[in-house]
Amino acid sequence: MTSLPATGPLTTRQIGERAQAMVDALATVSADEGALTRLYLTPEHRRAAEMVSGWMDTAGLSARMDAAGTVRGALPPGAAGRNSNKVLLIGSHIDTVIDGGRFDGNLGVIAGILAVEQLKARGIALPFGLEVLAFGDEEGVRFPVTLTSSAVAAGVFDPNSLDVADAQGVTLREALVAFGGDPERLRQEAYQRPAVLGYLEVHIEQGPVLERAGEPLGVVSAIASQSRHRIRIRGEAGHAGTVPMEMRHDALAAAAEIILAVEAIARKGKKHALVATVGHVEVMPGASNVIPGDVRFSLDVRAATDDARKAAVEEITLFARRIDKRRQVVVGVETVMEKGVATCAPRLAKAIAAGVGAVQAKPARSLMSGAGHDGLSMAQLGDIGMIFVRCRAGISHNPNEWVSIDDMGAAVEALVATIEELARQERAGR
Ligand code: GLV
Ligand code: MN
Ligand code: MN
Predict the structure, then answer these.
(1) Above 70 in pLDDT, residue 2?
(2) What is the Å distance from ligand 1's center to 72 Cα?
(3) 97 lines ligand 1 (CB under 6 A)
């Protein structure tokens, strides 16, 4: 279903069915057969962006690709109002992790398009502009930096990041050019703060709370503080059969100690929802009969407060420095990404609660997001608000990720109702 026949007003169930068809169509665009892998600025990303762009056009949005590869679909204001020169942004991402699920990010982009479709089909004219954004780098899997596309939109992109490289040595700058983006125009793509009414995102919860509570939708209170680091340990490669144990400087054994310390330090921080993960390890030279001489690994740390996260990173770094001396290896810790807690704006959270209230019997529960989202960047531009959608068993970053058709329909209806609530507030001059 690359093309999307235009439609009129639909029931919640019909909207959910349309969302499912779109989710399934996007899931066919992958680097791997039989698995969903779609990394930033790859040919798959390009094909998915073109599919989304076609859907935006059908929904009546005028779509363009920005210099960072984000698809932006614009709907001009349909009615006069004091803020008719402002724009409400609605977005999420179309990149995935390796062998990921089909709803993470993709559902939020689709929900934005379907909400516009229903607003139009129901003859609802908004007293502000609206733009649907399909970001391409929320997962940060290809390059060591992440949230590139939303950072560009928010005007907080660090141009030094253009020089980071992927595992093949392709820099972000080169990848952008090959994709058809423009590294020289990134600054001009930033929205101007006074022109933005706010940023809304629909996203699957990626956790079990809503399912356990029997509630399809929730409202996000804040997105956790997050940082990513690269740790490198330089020891000494040597013969696995000849170097006595006490004379070794095994970089992998040192890494193993640090990785276990990461786990132990994070476990102490439950009160602050502290979590820390080492998800990628490279061992060099990587042969069974060679003592590892050089190890690089990733570190991802998150918490409900910036202080708790920073304290954990400091403790991990101190531990690594001590290993350094004891094992006579050289440990380097580099920070590649750092985002503070992004608190959702109370005015948008209230509008979302009203929107969710219009489609589900139970009042919208407030949830903290441990997962990172494009809202981390967009909060640096202006107010953000997020709607969480129940997913089965809280499973995400996994091909078994699943959301029901009815819940997808409800999420789009809640988004429509939230937009209508914001339009009412604008008309009332609040
Ligand atoms: C993305 O899903 C992240 O939370 O890292
Ligand atoms: Mn996501
Ligand atoms: Mn994700």
Answers:
(1) no
(2) 22
(3) no
Q: Stretch 52-80: mean pLDDT, rounded?
A: 96
Cα angle value 11/14/19 (rounded, 5°): 125
Tell how far the Cα of 123 is from the centroid of ligand 2, in angstroms: 31
Q: Which atom of ligand 1 is least distant from the CA of 371? A: 4
pLDDT given at position 5: 81
Judge whether 301 and 280 are in contact, CB under 8 Å. no
299 within ligand 1 shell (Cβ under 6 A): no
What confidence category does residue 149 fall into, taking pLDDT thresholds of 50, 70 and 90? Answer: very high
- Within 8 A by CB and 6+ apart from 317, the residues are 333
- Picking from 11, 203, 212, 205, the residue whose alpha carbon sits closest to that of residue 107 is 203
Handedness of CA 75, 79, 84, 87 (dihedral sign): negative
pLDDT for res 351: 98
105 lines ligand 1 (CB under 6 A): no
CA of 116 to the centre of ligand 3 (A): 24
What CA–CA distance (Å, rounded) separates 66 from 72? Answer: 7
Among the bound ligands, name the one nearest to the CA of residue 401. 3
Report the first-to-last Cα separation within the chain, whole angstroms: 42
**Closest residue by CA, ligand 1 atom 3:** 372
For 405, residues 6+ apart whose C-beta sits below 8 A from its C-beta are 13, 16, 17, 19, 20
- Check pocket membership of 407 for ligand 1, CB cut-off 6 A: no
